[in-house]
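Form 7-S
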Amino acid sequence: MKPISRRLYAASAIVLAAIIFVALNIAVDAGVTTARLDLTENRLFTLAPGTRNIIAGLKEPVTLSFYYSKNVAADYAQVSSYATRVRDLLQRYAALGNGKIILREIDPEPFTPAEDEAAAYGLSGVPTDSGDLVYFGLVGTNTIDGRETIAYFSPDREQYLEYDLTSLIYRLSHPKKPVIGIVSSLPLDTGAGGMAAMLQGQARPFMIYQQLAQNYATKMLDPNFTSIPPGVDVLLVVHPPQLGPEQTYAIDQFVLKGGRALVFVDPLSEISQASAGMSGAGTVESSLPSLFQAWGLGFTADRVVADKDLAQRVQTSSDPRNPISLYPVWLHVTKADFDAHDPITANLQTLNLASAGALKQLPKARTTFLPLVQSSDQASLLNAEEVRINTNPQMIMGEVHPTGERYVLAARISGPAKTAFRNGPPPAAGGGKPAPQIKTAGNINVVVMADSDIFDDRFWVHTDNLLGHQIATPFADNSAFVLNAVENLTGSSDLISLRTRASSDRPFKVVQRLQAQAEAQFKTQEDALQQKVTDTEARLRALQQGGNAGAANAPLGALTPQQQAEIQQFKRDLIETRTQLRNVQHGLRRDIDALGSLLAFINIALVPILVALFAIGLALVRRRRRARAIPV
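Output:
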């Protein structure tokens, strides 16, 4: 028998390796299509426990119809890539559902019944260059004809994909929504335009209210309410107006009966301030003093928390050379400032608040006071009226003198409490007989935040219009805080872990701290020098324009030697002052520029240098080993 030649053996090995490679790829593609290795910090691509709990708790089947125009969208790489991820995630949901989640994949090709069906369900078709429409949405249905849709999977919301899918399934599996009663002086349900915008058909409710209305049955209480309607699961009080005794008593009794309340008060509501500017009515401060006293809660109703470390960066137009400033009464609160153990705040990444107040526990309070959100220790309290009048960020920054105390911005109040009406209920309207009074409760459950501007869209979300549908892209977790609190107070927490796990905010805290320190050190000197430049320029113009018109036999506009000498001195002063001003302005950026140069050096030069040094060292070691190995 002739032996196999080496050449034939090598060729056979190559062919066999190619066959094994192709077969392995086909097997992996068929059987492991949804396998993922999630190395992201927030584990964005790993299904959260809340999703698994909701799927495991399904009692009735849910049908998910995924409409995707595969052939029409084939030329659009971004859409195709995202569609693959959506399909993979839906397949994982169906696999976890054990028959309770039925997945249908439909390609609504142009001029087919499937395309008509997608349009009838309200899905949005995005036109292509050829004129055909790309459908990329989801329709979910349950066994009682309930229906929920995602009109179009916008790539801008990719990081919220799991939340969008899971919340859709949750709404289908819980058709009876908990009821939220709302007491507010803010136009939550109409937006900044108020009732006038609603009458004109231009109302744009605040996004948080829209999300509440989507997930819960919301009921706006009449301004003159005297009781909380039966069936209300959570009472939401947002920047309340001045309440009368009957209204305060209604809230008091609701909480003591075991009702749960979520309260937002404010020493300076910027939403209310803007609304008052348009309508000429409204108040910018709010509080519930008698109820807070009964709950063992203190609130500084005339003081605003200003924080150097948490100051938001804002755009100012007053100085084009320095358009970005730190505004210490607008707070960018980060993960280190949240209670990591309470389900409301455990997964929050950031909150953007504006002119918030401070909460504290009163002495001898019987209730438990649990801080949920706090300032940094570089904060102090400023007079709310002065902050309202003075909107200059640099001037306000100069007024912040840190006390070293971390002020509480939001807290959970629980435990035993007594009624705020120790002398009995107030007289009932119309002389009717009031219901029996509850004087004590063993355990109240209230969450309070000293800010109502958390509802303001401009602080936390970008909204775009896609073919008549609003696409919301959050950049802070304001909505998550409110929805988490409502979810927790209604007794269900499965969606909490999904709302906040996708935040990718990475604030430059070191840079912000350096900028705040530089502004505190140099801003006063810069303002003084800038004023000196302005004054010197004004006096110089006055001398040059005035001349010596009043002197006898002098031509109009002529200058005396003394005036000419004074002008020259002013010019020298002006040049010297501008030089000093440039030095001060450079000082504002010196530490930040030094940090940038250091990081650039590390990223650009240091790593290659270290690699080169390692290679040289390795070469020297090998040379020495070879030299030792050579026999003498």
